[in-house]
Amino acid sequence: MKKLEEHVERTLILAKHDAIQRGLVGEIIKRFENRGMKIVACKMVEPTEEMLALHYPDDEEWKKRVGARNREIMAEKGIEMKESDVEFGAMIRAYNMASLRGTPLLAFVFEGLHAVEIGRKIVGHTEPRKADPGTIRGDFSTESFQLADVEKRVVRNLVHASGSKKEAENEIKIWFKDEEIYDYEKHDWVVMHSFD
Ligand code: ADP
């Protein structure tokens, strides 16, 4: 069905170090499978510095966004951030790279209708404290930006999910070679979406 195929997307999901240590990998896979997503690639990887620098690109927009979001959250609590948004974003980028360095994680590509948008919903808000129950971050953590900032580290939120279709395309290339991504039919899509 040509029309439906146009809506099939791929998203990159990482079960980070904290998810592996807490034995939550099966739970993460289950939530994507339950929603009807197809696993098309999966492996355990210890990312190199180069992979991490590509995965968290040195991007002004991203740094500004992360910095500004944090400034708002801190302001609500009456705490004034001394760093500029970009400086704070750069710090978070460095923390992210440090937190994924030197430790294996599990990388997945899931394929499905609206996989990026739905993947973000399955995962939940970046800050587990704000994440809704029913999401991975909202069901398995109470971590907060505030705590992470005090400890000068990244907020531990178990999982990464691509933020947009473009981001997913770029990220999948960082973590997987073309031949590591499989193409097969998922038969429950016939029932779910009238795929033929
Ligand atoms: P997401 O992972 O939900 O796409 P972002 O791309 O905004 O979120 O941020 C990437 C990662 O950086 C987050 O998953 C989180 O681990 C970390 N992070 C973002 N903002 C902060 C912050 N203010 N304090 C600590 N860690 C943060």
Question: What does this entry look like structurally?
Answer:
With 196 residues, the protein is α+β, with helices and mostly antiparallel strands. The protein has two domains: 1-41 and 105-196, Nucleoside diphosphate kinase-like domain (Alpha-Beta Plaits, 2-Layer Sandwich), CATH 3.30.70; 50-100, no CATH class. It is 49% helix and 14% strand. It has eleven helices and four strands, in the order αβααβαααβαααβαα. It has helices at residues 2-5, 17-21, 25-34, 49-55, 60-76, 85-100, 115-123, 136-140, 145-150, 165-175, 188-193; strands at 8-15, 38-45, 105-113, 159-161. It has a four-stranded antiparallel sheet with strand order 2-3-1-4. Helix 5 crosses helix 6. The N and C termini lie close together (6 Å). The relative contact order is 0.22. The structure holds adenosine-5'-diphosphate (ADP). Residues 66, 70, 92, 96, 126, 145, 148-149, 154-155, 157, 160, 163 line the site of adenosine-5'-diphosphate (ADP).
User: Structural class of the secondary structure composition?
Assistant: alpha+beta
> Cα-atom Rg, whole angstroms?
17 Å
Q: Can you tell me the number of structural domains?
A: 2
- Helix-strand topology string: HEHHEHHHEHHHEHH
**Which architecture of the largest domain per CATH?**
2-Layer Sandwich
Superfamily at the CATH H level of the largest domain?
A: Nucleoside diphosphate kinase-like domain
Beta-strand share of residues: 5-15%
The small molecules bound here are: adenosine-5'-diphosphate
Poorly predicted runs: none
Write down the overall mean pLDDT: 94
Shape: globular
User: If helices are DSSP runs of H or I spanning 4 or more residues, what is the number of helices?
Assistant: 11
